[in-house]
Design goal:
Layout lengths: L1 E2 L24 E3 L6 H4 L11 E5 L12 H5 L5 H25 L7 E2 L3 H5 L30 E5 L10 E11 L3 E11 L2 E2 L3 E8 L4 E8 L6 E9 L10 E10 L3
Parallel strand pairs: 1-2, 2-3, 3-5
Antiparallel strand pairs: 4-5, 6-10, 6-12, 7-8, 7-9, 7-11
Amino acid sequence: SGLDPAQPYFQGTPTEVRLDKSDADFVDIIHTDSAPTIPNLGFGIRPAIGHIDFYPNGGEEMPGCGKNAVSQIVDLDGIWEGTRDFVACNHLRSYKYYLDSIIYPNGFLGYPCASYDLFQSGKCFPCPEEGCPNMGHYADKFKGKITEDFLKFYLNTGEARDFPLWRYKVTVTLSGKSKVNGYVNVALYGSDGNTKQHQVTKGTLKPDNTYTAYIDAEVNVGKVTKVKFLWNNNWINPTLPKLGASTITVESGQN
């Protein structure tokens, strides 16, 4: 397992001098700091070099690493860890994700995709027939399912521990008499836990229209038992408009 293998002096070199899929029966890579070294000071290698390569949050900028220097340096983990994180936060996220992956065997599902932008727009959802690998400690469960030469997998993580997020596709069809402005939120309830509210859409809300969002939830809810629907039009409207949901569909990425 390569935890953000080094970029300076290694990227673009022969396979003999850097980590490569020829080094073991199964090589999995987590890329967390793969922006170009100049001018972005990326410490991690960018190209796919393993049997499977994970690019959490796109592989360049990790959420939670943009905090201001003071709050980061006097973080909960203490001054030493805070200082180190301030200097190389993106780079060091790789081992923190790996640590959390040991505790969450079903977390960090990586979706095969051509790019992070396509992943974000939902084009690579749900998992293909052979399933998705889990980034980190349990990636080797995917070993027998590798079909192509270089496989890139994308996923999102939280800003702080615990890092894993579970992706859901939520589709809401609205019902009502007239269109209104505002936003629609949903919360998922399930056999294994509940999520907080996540925004599906905002702007003009039209009855009979269908809105879709990809939600990265902080909980794996298990079997969905209930969906809470909430809308708000942000200001006081004397006509007291009503809006409901005629259908809500929830799809989990795994199955």
